[in-house]
Write a structure and sequence with these properties.
It comes from Roseomonas acroporae. The protein is an alpha/beta fold. The protein has 15 helices and 19 strands. About 25% of the residues lie in helices and about 15% in strands. The chain has an eight-stranded parallel beta sheet with strand order 9-8-7-3-2-1-11-10. Bound molecules: 1-O-alpha-D-glucopyranosyl-D-fructose.
Length: about 525
């Protein structure tokens, strides 16, 4: 077997740049603020940081509306700040991944400004323009992910343009080779600057049906549903041609050594795994979001781990995610106690883990009063619970009013629990989530079984989820109590390495292991 790549052994950490560290005091995080906190990441034991978008942007969708694919927004700093951040990260052995947003640009991008000037503009075909339907109105029934229809009328040129998200985010036309060339040029711009890879935004949405057919209704949809769309996304997502694009992108990354291609893909497992590409020449890591929104019980988690493992193509490397900037925080979804069990699950499963900033502190969603809402997903459809501000609040570094995040007024409120849940306080408390995360990453980093080993014996026994990681002469058992009652696990003899409760290292286990409610244990099994 080839030497494993860094991203196979490694742990990824997602930073939402507006909310990590604000050095210039404007209340919004910046690159210098991230650079100042790199030692936190080193001590946490992660290998790479992924930055949500930092490109010039009108911020209609907080950077997911890019106005220049080869620059840095002044709110975050300059290209020089970026180079300094990459250098500082690399000096500490940390890789840097960028968010690449290819499906749509900002409506202020010079390409779109030119595209909308006339039907014969040279860049007209860089975006998706269509005539009205024969009877008038939008060309088809496709919906925006942010509410309402996906087509915006342009009075000046008498056509509609497609926007899968906000109308300020017109979809680029990936069927146009000029678009592809320009976008691959942007990838190379950053790769040549030393960027170690990309998380590609909405990778499964890049291609649309060439005939622009209507989508059928989705029977599973309910109001306020983050899981389903109102229509089945049959014709505006996951088209057969998308795979060719993914493989083209991968080929661009392969021009440089050791780069990683990660895809944001919300699809059922059987479709998700197609994005590894033919002969694994697609995404290295199609993000696996199965743990997001999953019912938190042992039988269900055992089933979804087994189904994912079984669906992986030969040689494909797995990955696991608990949360991100679009999802309610894990501690809000399953509670503080089970969030510790989830941390142990994330860092002991087979495959690359991605940690969302603040998970290592046990942060919860922060309620945002209606007048303080920023996220367009909430503003467009208030009251449906679609807003993502609650999971994007500033990282609490200490218990001061600005939380050590800013000397100004933070753009979103810091959680009311910042007195307890902050880096400095958790540093002092050996029972904190921060110490648990460090212990878990430390255990993982030091163990071939946990990083690269096989996953065996996966099963649910009542509320206990159990599995074994085996590698290089070592067998580790992971025993997770996903319930609220004490449990006893049989057929385990060996020694406790780590408990989510922090108190049992070195404990000899004769054959039966008692587990307290919401306790997880990693044990070394006797040979
Ligand atoms: O998210 C894509 C996506 O699936 C979202 O529409 C998700 O369903 C929604 O946020 C749930 O409320 C990516 C980015 O991660 C997100 O932040 C962007 O807003 C979106 O693409 C558009 O670029």
């Amino acid at each position: 077997m080839a030497e494993p790549a860094w991203w196979q052994r490694g742990i990824i950490y997602q930073i939402y740049p507006r909310s990590f560290g604000d050095l210039d005091g404007d209340g919004i995080g910046d690159l210098a603020g991230i650079a100042a906190r790199l030692d936190h990441l080193v001590r946490l034991g992660v290998d790479a940081l992924w930055l949500s978008p930092i490109y010039p942007s009108p911020m209609a969708d907080f950077g997911y509306d890019v106005a220049d694919y080869e620059g840095i927004d002044p709110i975050f700093g300059t290209l020089a700040d970026f180079d300094a951040l990459v250098a500082a990260a690399h000096a500490r052995g940390l890789r840097v991944l960028l968010d690449f947003v290819p499906n749509h640009s900002s409506d202020r991008h010079p390409w779109f400004l030119e595209s909308r000037t006339s039907r014969s503009a040279p860049r007209r075909r860089w975006y998706v323009w269509r005539d009205p339907a024969p009877g008038g109105g939008p060309p088809n029934n496709w919906l925006s992910h942010f509410g309402g229809g996906a087509w915006a009328w342009d009075q000046a040129t008498g056509q509609y343009y497609l926007h899968s998200f906000l109308k300020e985010q017109p979809d680029l036309n990936w069927r146009n080779p000029e678009v592809r060339r320009a976008m691959y040029g942007a990838l190379r711009f950053w790769l040549a600057r030393g960027v170690d890879g990309f998380r590609v935004d909405v990778l499964w949405l890049l291609m649309k049906d060439a005939l622009f057919r209507d989508n059928p209704p989705n029977p599973a949809w309910k109001p306020g549903d983050r899981e389903h769309d109102r229509l089945l996304p049959l014709h505006d997502a996951d088209q057969p041609e998308t795979l060719d694009l993914v493989m083209e992108m991968r080929a661009v990354l392969d021009e440089y050594p050791d780069r990683v291609l990660i895809g944001e893909i919300y699809l059922p497992v059987e479709r998700l795994v197609a994005y590894y590409g033919r002969d694994l020449k697609g995404a290295h890591l199609p993000f696996n979001f199965q743990l997001i929104g999953a019912a938190w019980n042992a039988a269900n988690i055992a089933r979804l781990v087994a189904e994912y493992e079984a669906a992986l193509p030969a040689g494909a490397w797995p990955n696991w995610v608990l949360g991100n900037h679009d999802q309610h925080r894990i501690a809000t979804r399953i509670g503080a106690a089970q969030a510790r069990v989830a941390a142990m699950l994330l860092l002991t499963l087979r495959g690359t883990p991605t940690i969302y900033y603040g998970e290592e502190l046990g942060l919860t969603d922060v309620p945002i009063p209606p007048e303080a809402v920023w996220d367009p997903a909430e503003r467009n459809e208030p009251g449906l619970g679609l807003g993502r501000d609650p999971e994007r609040t500033p990282m609490p570094w200490d218990g001061t009013p600005g939380a050590g995040f800013t000397t100004g007024t933070p753009w979103l409120p810091v959680g009311a629990d910042r007195d307890v849940l902050n880096v400095a306080a958790e540093e002092r408390d050996p029972a904190s989530m921060l110490h648990l995360y460090r212990a878990l990453t430390g255990l993982r980093r030091g163990s071939e079984a946990l990083t690269l080993g096989a996953l065996e014996g996966l099963r649910a026994e009542g509320e206990v989820l159990r599995y074994v990681r085996r590698g290089a002469g070592e067998r580790l058992a992971v025993l997770l109590n996903l319930g609220h009652a004490p449990q006893s696990v049989a057929e385990v003899a060996g020694e406790v390495l780590l408990s989510t409760h922090g108190d049992r290292p070195g404990e000899a286990v004769p054959g039966t292991l008692p587990l307290r409610p919401a306790e997880g244990v990693v044990m070394r099994l006797a040979a």
